[in-house]
Amino acid sequence: MASPAVLMRLVASAYSVAEKAAAIVRKVMAGGDLGIVEKCGANDLQTKADRLVQMSICSSLSRKFPKLTIIGEEDLPSYDVDEELIENGQYEEILKKTCPPQYSTIKEEELVVWVDPLDGTKEYTEGLLDHVTVLIGIAYGGKAIAGIINQPYYNYEVKSASDAKFIERFANVYSLSHWPCEAGADAVLGRTIWGVLGLGAFGFQLKEVPDGKHIIITTRSHSSKMVNDCIGAMNPDTVVRVGGAGNKVIHLIEGKASAYVFASPGCKKWDTCAPEAILHAVGGKLTDIHGNSLHYNKEVKHMNSAGVLATLRNFDYYASRVPDSVKQALVP
Fold first, then answer.
1. 97, 152, 175, 250: which has the highest count of C-beta atoms within 10 A?
2. Cα–Cα distance between 139 and 81 in angstroms, integer?
3. What average pLDDT score do residues 177-192 get?
4. pLDDT of residue 38
């Protein structure tokens, strides 16, 4: 029997690496010292979890696939990585699936991996743990073709930042080791969603927003007049504000939102590569605010300077309502 294609082996490894990453994220939070530093301001943070997870993902994948190009969010110094951070496993269920024929002969050196070790860092520091994801996106020919999204705190929900802070104080007083946990004692903590173009996406239940409902999901901590003007022009029934690009796209594929709108240049390629691949694998669409495809070749600039527009269905409805003033302000 022929060995699995490089793409499928990489996705299977990335799945296991993402599960390891989630365990690191939870361990750092449980330890209580997040090691927070500001990168470019109070809304652009880095934690110990960001640093350790990026080292884990990049080192684990580069050992197995030394010819890969791997681009991570965090700018980290190069030094020896603790062996405890290395994950050598692979998810066997993925290897049982047949690689889409258009990707079956891809060489390792033709792939670019985009890594966001902790998408939703600000929310992580505020205890909004259900916003947090680990993102590993895989691109070929400049196109996002496969993605892995891990939610370390799936089944571990926080109602609000104020609730989280209250429960944290409560936990400290009573020496509780886990906070703020509302899941049942037998609930499985965390999940991994993955997808490949031409094969589909797995690990969740695909749902659509009811017909005629316009629920827009957008940024929680990077809002602006332009973002709000763009959303207002779409006549939404509801606007949902959450952290993390991965989290927003999960809302789309689980029928909790109909459009992800971010009319601002703040988003980066490592935020969108994995979510885009999964969304496209189930028939959705993610572009910049003009409707142009995003490019993920290794030489591309990291900023998505013309924003993000994404839907599971009815893309044209939302794209047609983006104001000209927004399009003129956001240059690709």
1. 152
2. 25
3. 63
4. 77
Question: Which residues contact residue 289 at a Cβ distance below 8 angstroms, ignoring those fewer than 6 apart?
Answer: 230, 262, 263, 306, 307, 308, 309, 322, 326, 327, 330
Structure tokens at 21: 């990453």
Active site annotation includes 47? no
Q: State the pLDDT confidence band at 96, using cuts at 50, 70 and 90.
A: very high
Angle at 216 between CA 72 and CA 293, to 5 degrees: 45
4 upstream amide cis, omega within 30 of 0: no
Q: What percent of the chain has pLDDT over 90?
A: 77
- Any idea which of 46-60, 181-195, 206-220, 296-310 has the lowest mean pLDDT? 181-195
Q: Max Cα separation, the chain?
A: 59
Catalytic residue among 47, 50, 192, 311: 50
pLDDT bracket for residue 186 (50, 70, 90): low
CA distances from 321 to 82, 136, 291, 309 (A): 50, 31, 12, 11
Q: Which of 47, 119, 121, 311 is catalytic?
A: 121
- Which two tokens mark 261? 């709108």
Could you write out the three-class secondary structure of 241-280? Answer: EECCHHHHHHHHHECCCCEEEECCCCCEHHHHHHHHHHHH
User: What is the phi/psi pair of residue 140, to 5°?
Assistant: -140, 130
Q: What is the pLDDT of residue 1?
A: 55
Task: Tell me, yes or no, if 50 is annotated catalytic.
Answer: yes
- Per DSSP, 144 falls in state E
Which helix (H) or strand (E) segment is 29 a member of? Answer: helix 6-31
Pair of tokens at residue 110:
């033709």
CA dist 120 and 242 (Å) reads: 9
**Residue 165 pLDDT more than 80?**
no
